[in-house]
Amino acid sequence: MTTDQILPCANPGFGPLPRRLTRAVTIGGVQVGGGAPVVVQSMTNTDTADVASTTKQVAELWRAGSEMVRVTVNTAEAAAAVPRIVDKLAMMGIEVPIIGDFHYNGHQLLTAEPAAAQALAKYRINPGNVGFGKKKDAQFATLIELAIKHDKPVRIGANWGSLDQSLATRLMDENHLRAEPWDAGRVLREALILSALESAARAVEIGLPADRIVLSAKVSGVQELVAVYRELARRGDYALHLGLTEAGIGSKGIVASSAALGVLLQEGIGDTIRISLTPEPGQARSNEVIVAQELLQTMGLRAFTPMVTACPGCGRTTSTFFQELAQKVQEHVRAKMPEWKVTHPGAENLTLAVMGCIVNGPGESRHANIGISLPGTGEAPAAPVFEDGEKTVTLRGENIADEFVGLIDLYVERNYGGNARVA
């Protein structure tokens, strides 16, 4: 199976529900929706006008596995930089679609910089701040007309933090007339949903085909996000972009995003995802890409890189060696994956186990394609290695780590390379 395949449910009642069928939207060379695998995307945090730093970060995100990358386009300088960034990436052999993120002045920037309008693969429009008062409709129409002119799709992305206040006021007024008024939270969720759906309907009315529209409606609360996207999915067949906005830093952001998106993905909702993490000081921006990939892979929706099963450690595993080996193995296969993706397709489905003692070690190692059971406290200083359920060798001495990594490489070569066995 390749990364372009969706892992199906093994049987009813087990695994994710069937994917919700949405319209297929082509963004650069990437398909979103229409039954395509869930796409991973990310966003830069550089000043887009700084061509060198933005190009470098886009390249880093792409190498980590981001299949689309969004950049802020907020000034004339940023808009002018976009074609140069795209050209530099192309010279590096990187064809990742670049998405322009617009707020307030997108209609002006894209009109003034037609090269940017053409270079971008998609425009992200926020209906809550595309314009205000009488200018809103005209400025939204200008953006949609530019998308039509340049043959580009758009993401209409409503956001809890920049909700269309006129729409919210209208719904609050309507709510007062209900025999049983909704609570304020439900009214605001409805406003967010309608902001996306009504804007999409307006775009179609202007002339943008529905298969060039992706919708999102982001909030920062897990339960609110689940409720909003269930309604969006129920009311239409637009492709949906999932993401918990302002998720937070570190484990909080990872847990909150995984909880919300995991529920929706399990229900077959979502065509592309972004994990919006606040980077910890010194942390690479690409961490959000890794988290998104691991979420999809852990749920059985896609495969990106071999995953390592490792025990948490206990009083039986006083040595830190198994922890260091698990880390070394994970880093090794992730570093090798860009090469293996080309030369050894299918290696992303490899399962690995690094276990720390005799209790669960041999059993977990047998379940993996290749696993090692290290000696725990008081155990004989020997580490049996299992391949596809069979014990193949016992490692001893000071070079266990390097020898096990070497066995992994040999397994990949044997099973996924040019000499791979034919089933």
From TrEMBL:
Per UniProt, the cofactor note for this protein states: Binds 1 [4Fe-4S] cluster.
For this protein, the parts annotated as crossing the membrane are none
- Keyword check for 4Fe-4S: yes
In terms of superkingdom, the source organism counts as Bacteria
For the ligand ([4Fe-4S] cluster), the binding residues are 311, 314, 357, 364
Which GO molecular function terms does the record list? 4 iron, 4 sulfur cluster binding; 4-hydroxy-3-methylbut-2-en-1-yl diphosphate synthase activity (ferredoxin); 4-hydroxy-3-methylbut-2-enyl-diphosphate synthase activity (flavodoxin); iron ion binding
Judged by the first EC level, this protein's enzyme class is oxidoreductase
In the UniProt record, the signal sequence range is none
**Cofactor entry:** [4Fe-4S] cluster
| Reaction(s) the record says it catalyses | (2E)-4-hydroxy-3-methylbut-2-enyl diphosphate + oxidized [flavodoxin] + H2O + 2 H(+) = 2-C-methyl-D-erythritol 2,4-cyclic diphosphate + reduced [flavodoxin]
* Gene Ontology biological-process entries: isopentenyl diphosphate biosynthetic process, methylerythritol 4-phosphate pathway; terpenoid biosynthetic process
By sequence similarity, the record places it as follows: Belongs to the IspG family.
Q: Which HAMAP family match?
A: IspG
PANTHER family, alphabetized: 4-HYDROXY-3-METHYLBUT-2-EN-1-YL DIPHOSPHATE SYNTHASE (PTHR30454), 4-HYDROXY-3-METHYLBUT-2-EN-1-YL DIPHOSPHATE SYNTHASE (FERREDOXIN), CHLOROPLASTIC (PTHR30454:SF0)
Purpose: Converts 2C-methyl-D-erythritol 2,4-cyclodiphosphate (ME-2,4cPP) into 1-hydroxy-2-methyl-2-(E)-butenyl 4-diphosphate.
Q: In its UniProt entry, what is this protein called?
A: 4-hydroxy-3-methylbut-2-en-1-yl diphosphate synthase (flavodoxin)
